[in-house]
Write a structure and sequence with these properties.
- By secondary structure, this protein is α+β, with helices and mostly antiparallel strands.
- The protein folds into 2 domains: about 70 residues; about 260 residues, PPM-type phosphatase domain (Phosphatase 2c, domain 1, 4-Layer Sandwich), CATH 3.60.40.
- Helices cover about 40% and strands about 20% of the residues.
- The protein has 8 helices and 12 strands.
- The strands form 2 sheets. A 7-stranded antiparallel sheet has the order 1-2-11-10-7-8-12.
- β7 and β8 form a beta hairpin.
- The radius of gyration is 28 Å and the shape is globular.
- The protein starts with a helix and ends with a strand.
């Protein structure tokens, strides 16, 4: 019999030592004169029942721990498949990524990211599904599956974004038919980024997601662009995917993140001051390789969040840091894209 089957039978297992203890008490009471039976029985129950209960509880706890360990192993495997760490180099980019779910407690959360090659461009998605539990986990699978299917295809960034939205809406319609839960409250923010090889500009479509931060020679810039409604909410308004372009130079660093970063709060309820704290991070380091520097930036951010909150944030958190490493080389998987630019930025000088 497996551990899980034993765990399912625990109500019966717990009764065995208790029944044996009660049988022993009744046997002794039967041999004691009537006047002393009640008092004697109470004392014997105290002596026998407590150890019996402790034995039963210890057995239950051991089996429960085995079951939890088994569940965590499964969730780790699922996360390893769904949210694989991004490769350190893809196309013309160096990358670093980090993912922490629910303050480090849950292994699978509602944040997502992925990368794909599209001929002479690299495409990245980062997103945040509303809610937690099985429905949000299924939403993550649906969005990542659609991105991995369409991102390598020879379509523009706007068309890719439109297909992703349509795919997610079809998935929600099927979920509604299955009556799994109320799909009217299910949506996801997402940012889709395209960085062409050999071009100075990058392009993005923002589905209600927190804007990227660009660090360039002593200046931090927030890149909000023109946000569209979150994935799953387009039927409520007549706003379609809109592409924004911005410059991403050879010495720039771009930070993508989910709202777990900016909504991390300290004990007084104050949110994490992203741009204010970002001025102290080491965006440039001539003594390290580019991908090592990017990993160090993310490590600095995590340390800063813990210093601000006193612990990892209670919400899911995903971050991607990227920079150009020079043209040529890198991982290859196929497909192109051709769009029109428009940029919205808000600068902030380092202190």
């Amino acid at each position: 019999m497996t551990d899980l089957e034993q765990f399912d039978d625990m109500p019966v297992v717990r009764l065995v030592p208790i029944a044996g203890a009660l049988l022993g008490v009744l046997t002794i009471c039967a041999a004691v004169p009537l006047r002393g039976r009640v008092k004697t029985a109470c004392r014997l129950l105290q002596l026998v029942a407590a150890p019996a209960a402790a034995v039963a509880y210890g057995r239950l706890l051991r089996l429960y721990r085995r079951r939890v360990a088994s569940a965590l192993a499964v969730s780790d495997a699922v996360q390893g498949v769904l949210l694989r760490p991004l490769p350190s180099r893809v196309g013309g980019l160096d990358l670093a990524s980090v993912y922490r779910a629910c303050g480090g407690q849950a292994r699978v959360g509602g944040d997502l990211y992925a990368v794909a090659r599209a001929d002479a461009a690299t495409r990245i998605i980062i997103g945040d599904v509303r809610g937690r539990g099985l429905p949000s986990f299924l939403d993550v699978i649906a969005i990542l599956g659609a991105f991995r299917e369409w991102a390598p295809q020879p379509v523009s960034l706007v068309e890719l974004s439109t297909r992703l939205e349509e795919s997610f809406l079809r998935y929600l319609a099927d979920a509604d038919d299955d009556a799994r839960c109320d799909v009217d409250e299910r949506f996801a923010t997402a940012l889709i980024l395209e960085v062409p090889d050999g071009e100075p500009d990058a392009r993005m479509v923002n589905f209600g997601h927190p804007p990227p931060v660009r660090a360039r020679s002593g200046e931090l810039v927030l890149l909000p662009g023109t946000p569209c409604p979150p994935l799953g909410l387009s039927p409520l308004c007549d706003i379609r995917a809109h592409e924004n372009a911005f410059e991403l130079g050879p010495h720039d660093t771009l930070l993508l993140y989910t709202d777990g970063l900016i909504e991390a709060r300290d004990c007084s309820g104050m949110s994490f001051p992203l741009l204010e704290r970002a001025t102290s991070w080491t965006w440039h380091d001539q003594h390290r390789l580019c991908h090592e520097r990017l990993h160090n930036v993310l490590a600095e951010i995590l340390e800063d969040i813990v210093a601000h909150c006193g612990a990892l944030p209670a919400d899911d958190l995903a971050m991607i840091a990227l920079a150009r490493h020079g043209e040529g080389g890198g991982a290859v998987l196929p497909c192109p894209a051709d769009p029109d630019p428009s940029e919205g930025v808000r600068p902030m000088r380092w202190r």
